[in-house]
Structure formats: structure tokens, C-alpha cells
Design goal:
Protein name: Cytochrome c biogenesis factor
Distance between the termini: 27 Å
Strand content: under 5%
Order of helices and strands: HHHHHHHHHH
Helix content: over 70%
CATH architecture of the largest domain: Alpha Horseshoe
Structural class: mainly alpha
CATH superfamily of the largest domain: Tetratricopeptide repeat domain
Number of domains: 2
Radius of gyration: 18 Å
Number of helices: 10
Number of strands: 0
């Protein structure tokens, strides 16, 4: 608990200092906040202040498995060309190599140039979830919500945010996102059928008190 208090306090102090003393522009504040959240996500994933220090042998970690189907779904629902598409393509390439941290950092670099690009924020959310082995970290949550706020009519941010929440076992939160999305999806479309089926499965699991297999 002490480690969390220190980490959170340092993040708040650093952000306040950057805004008040560093005078960073308003357009860069969201990127700075996302970077700080990425650091906290890394602490949540790997940090444990109760353990004693010990050296780590390089190269013993297992590379994350890239979800090609997820990337293809994103390309089908979001931008795959233009500036955002180039950053996302580079991020996907790093993800395939198991370099999940670098994949997220590439999108942060892209957002410095295009801070209001919903597709980049969506890609960052997916990349952060992959980096955290399926955990919807505070940074990923921020990225998904930012994508939805920039383009509230786009289906992709709500779809992938709900998918990440469902896979993480947050079924009710996923349903709350997918319900309105399914309602406004075109009648007879594949996405509407998929969402309605997923919602029915969630309802059944919530009713039975079961959780999806990890």
C-alpha cells in the first residue's frame, strides 16, 4: 500500500509540476497523462515493493502472443491508411515480435503529432492491454475513453473497449458498452449479430454467476 501511495503521489506531483512550471501546451497534457498512466500500469503489472531486491536475468521473459485476429478486426472497423494507419502498422509489427512496450510507445509518439486521432487512442488501448497480458490498466482505460470522446459515433472504440473488459472478466461493464452499440448497429449486419450473441452470453454468465475462462 505504501508503494502505491508513493507512486501515485509522485505521478500527481510530476503532472502538476509539468503543467505549472514546465508550461506544457494543452494539446500535450493528455499525452503526458497517458505516459504517466502507462508508468503506473507497469508498476501495477510488475511492481512489488514488499519483495527484496534481486537481479533479473535478461532474456528469461516470455514474449506476449500477438492477437492477429484482433488487429484485423481493428483494421476492418477503424482507419488502416493515412498517418494513423502508418503508426498502427508499425505498432502491430512490434507486437508480433512480442515487444509490447515498444508497440505502445510507438503509438504514444504518433499521438504527440496527432493528439485528437481516435484511431491512435484506440490502438494505444489495445496495445496497453496486450502489454499487461489482458489486464485493462488505468492507461488502457484512459486511452479507450479518450477514443470514445473524440469520435462518439464510431463503433470501434466501444467495441474494443467492451471486448477488453469482457476478456478481463468485467462482464457488466462490457455489457453496458455493447448494449447501446448493438442497438444502433445496422439491422442484419455482422457486427449487430455478433454483439447480440455476445450480450446473450454475458447475460447467461451473469445470471449463473460464472466467469469467462481466462
Amino acid at each position: 500500500m505504501t508503494g502505491w501511495i508513493i507512486a501515485g503521489g509522485l505521478a500527481i506531483v510530476l503532472m502538476t509540476g509539468l503543467v505549472a512550471l514546465g508550461r506544457i501546451p494543452r494539446t500535450a497534457r493528455e499525452i503526458t497523462a497517458a505516459a504517466l498512466l502507462l508508468g503506473l500500469a507497469g508498476y501495477a503489472w510488475q511492481g512489488n515493493p514488499a519483495l527484496g531486491g534481486a537481479p533479473k536475468v535478461a532474456g528469461t521473459g516470455k514474449a506476449g502472443q500477438f492477437d492477429e485476429q484482433l488487429a484485423e478486426q481493428r483494421r476492418g472497423m477503424a482507419e488502416r491508411y493515412g498517418k494513423a494507419g502508418q503508426w498502427l502498422l508499425l505498432s502491430d509489427g512490434l507486437g508480433r515480435q512480442g515487444k509490447t512496450k515498444e508497440a505502445a510507445n510507438v503509438l504514444l509518439a504518433g499521438l504527440k503529432q496527432s493528439p485528437d486521432d481516435a484511431n491512435l487512442w484506440l490502438g494505444l488501448g489495445n496495445a496497453l492491454v496486450a502489454h499487461a497480458d489482458g489486464v485493462v490498466s488505468p492507461g488502457a482505460d484512459f486511452a479507450y475513453r479518450r477514443a470514445m470522446s473524440i469520435d462518439p459515433d464510431a463503433p470501434a472504440p466501444s467495441y474494443f473497449y467492451g471486448l477488453a473488459l469482457a476478456r478481463a472478466g468485467q462482464l457488466q461493464a462490457a455489457r453496458e458498452l455493447w448494449g447501446p452499440l448493438a442497438a444502433r448497429a445496422p439491422a442484419g449486419s455482422d457486427i449487430k449479430a455478433e454483439l447480440e450473441l455476445s450480450i446473450a452470453r454475458i447475460d447467461a454468465m451473469l445470471a449463473s454467476g460464472s466467469q469467462p475462462a481466462s
